[in-house]
Amino acid sequence: MPNQDYVLIMARYNRWQNENLLAATDGLSPDERRKDRGAFFGSIERTFSHILWADMIWLHRFAGTSRPKGSHSESDALIGDWDEFRELRDRLDRQILQWAHDVSPDWFEGNLRWTSGMVHREFSMPRKIVIMHLFNHQTHHRGQIHAMLTLAGAQPGATDLLVMPEIYASA
């Protein structure tokens, strides 16, 4: 089950993959980033936006950081300026890494309670499961971005966790 080592590795993987996909996306025009490609959130940009919002809401629930603006239904519309988005993504990835570095082993025990605005009800689930959901959710939607980038002619780098630089290094 997840522990601090798992969270540190996955937080590093999250940052590495975001940097990888953002670098590949930088080569596209704004129109190409915003083009509807038939994915769940439509475009590369809207999918990036949704991941950002979801990461923000989960970090809010885990660590008490600021709650993101908007709701799940608006989560794909956060990006105005691409450069500002990249800065926000980088800051959030650093926050996730810092949280992963600082999290107490006790945090993984017990349940996390939160109210979901998406389904309008309260949840209580084991923290060990919820933290796996965070990283699984990121990977799921980044896979969609990777596919859209490939279709757009971009060449994102490797995605395998096992080839992440310095996989076992401290974050």
UniProtKB/TrEMBL annotation:
Keywords: Metal-binding. The keyword Metal-binding applies. A divalent metal cation binds at H50, H137, H141. It holds the Pfam family DinB. GO terms for molecular function: metal ion binding. InterPro entries: DinB, DinB/YfiT-like. Transmembrane segments: none annotated. The keyword Transferase does not apply. Belongs to the DinB family. PANTHER family: PROTEIN DINB (PTHR37302:SF1), SLR1116 PROTEIN (PTHR37302). This is Damage-inducible protein DinB.
